[in-house]
Write a structure and sequence with these properties.
The chain is an alpha+beta fold. It has helices spanning about 10-20, 50, 60-70, 80-95, 120-135, 150-160, 170-175, 190-195, 205, 210-220, 220-230, 260-280, 310-325; strands spanning about 5-10, 30, 45, 75, 100-105, 105-110, 140-145, 165, 245-255, 280-295, 300-310, 335-340, 345. It has 13 helices and 13 strands. The longest helix is centred in the C-terminal third of the chain and has 22 residues, at about 260-280. The protein binds a DNA duplex through strand 3, helix 3, helix 8, strand 9 and strand 11.
DNA sequence: TCTGGGGTCCTAGGACCC
DNA sequence: TCTGGGGTCCTAGGACCC
């Protein structure tokens, strides 16, 4: 049996801001869109626990957060800064085990099976890692430990904030059983509604479901649901993960039908996508445009260009064409996005660090 | 209250090929 | 007259996560 840990940074973006602005530490701090006096269209990205006590939370419309606390500290998202902090954290985590997989800017799974003899030692190991991150970098995190990725994640959630939590395999079912289905990782609003309509309110009820009926209602996902509800899950760590797509999207400050304005935005976004693809050292084969209309309906239009490309013009020209061919004229556009996929590492190009002199 | 931006994975239909 | 089966690729949409 493996010993898997999930390291998850607590209120990461806001914690990073507190680190460079200690004066905000005791104040409600909201990282996200500029509220613009309550008229803005963005959302809360992350907020600290002082703000959470006031009812503010991630993904809440920023206008609502503003209404809840007009004199909170509102800061814009400084992604490059958080990424630099993330790199420091991830290097430290890696030093605890090379069997490591970063799953988002602030989370990583680590397989510590070879590092400790049992779960009790794993708890001590996790505490040491947590202290190291706190002392050397200054950021709080939580760590969940179990024998699968799923249960490590659930343990971590249960331990938040600033906690280390162990759930042994034999305790998984008992831990999960009373939770409402939407607390299970992978179950969102839609699936929860469907499950509740089928009579499954808790994970324990789901764990006793008839697998045949789950599969007939949800396909492969149904079988996965059953396994998850019973505390079973994957324990693999993918050490060299390859990115699958690169995209950027932008919401207009006001909905528009002005083609000139939209095309200009597509070109500007295409440029950002191009720069990111260059930075990642990948070519692409498919270009996709995403259009969100005023009523939130979304449409994707994609084109396989038939070869791997690295050209800015291939992104912007295909994106504009796809928009012109498929956009509903006179429908107000709220958001536009551009994405490239079908990626391949560029040939003859290695990362700088591969050339580092010995 | 009025809804961002960056991703992943899965499904399903149609085209095409053998 | 009434039309196989399997595999793969492409496209579009949906759900979910952070």
């Amino acid at each position: 049996m493996k010993i898997i840990m999930l390291v998850d940074m607590d209120y990461f973006f806001a914690a990073c801001e507190e680190l460079r602005h200690p004066e905000y530490r005791e104040m409600p701090l909201v990282v996200g869109a500029d509220p613009k006096g309550g008229t803005a269209r963005g959302v809360v990205s992350t907020c600290n626990y002082v703000a959470r006590k006031l009812g503010i939370h991630s993904a809440m419309p920023i206008s609502m957060a503003y209404r809840l606390k007009k004199d909170a500290i509102f800061l814009p998202v400084d992604y490059p800064y958080y990424e630099s902090m993330s790199s420091k954290v991830m290097e430290l985590v890696k030093s605890f085990s090379k069997r490591f997989e970063q799953v988002s800017i602030d989370e990583a799974f680590v397989d510590v099976t070879d590092k400790v003899d049992n779960f009790e030692q794993a708890v001590e190991y996790a505490k040491a890692l947590k202290e190291d991150i706190k002392n050397k970098i200054g950021l709080p995190c939580s760590i969940g430990i179990s024998s699968s990725r799923l249960m490590a994640k659930m343990a971590c959630e249960a331990g938040k904030p600033d906690g280390v939590r162990l759930i042994k395999g034999e305790d998984a079912a008992r831990f999960l059983s009373p939770l409402p289905v939407e607390k299970l990782y992978g179950i969102g609003k839609k699936t929860a509604e469907k499950l509740e309509s089928m009579g499954f309110k808790t994970v324990g009820q789901l764990a006793k479901a008839n697998t045949v009926s789950l599969v007939s209602n949800f396909g492969v996902f149904g079988a996965e649901l059953y396994r998850s509800a019973n505390g079973q899950g994957d324990d693999g760590i993918i050490e060299n993960y390859e990115i699958k797509s690169i995209g950027r999207e932008r919401t207009f400050e006001s909905d528009t039908t002005d083609r000139g304005r939209i095309v200009a935005q597509i070109k500007s976004i295409a440029d950002e996508v191009y720069e990111e693809a260059k930075k990642q050292g990948v070519s692409f084969k498919t270009v996709t445009v995403k259009i969100r209309y005023h009523d939130f309906s979304e449409h994707l239009r994609s084109r396989n260009i038939g070869h791997y490309s690295e050209e800015l013009a291939e992104i912007s020209e295909n994106a504009v064409q796809l928009f012109d061919m498929h956009a509903e004229k006179d429908e107000r556009v709220r958001k536009i996005g551009v994405r490239v996929s079908g990626l391949e590492k560029r040939k003859g190009q290695k990362k700088m660090k591969d050339f580092t002199a010995p």
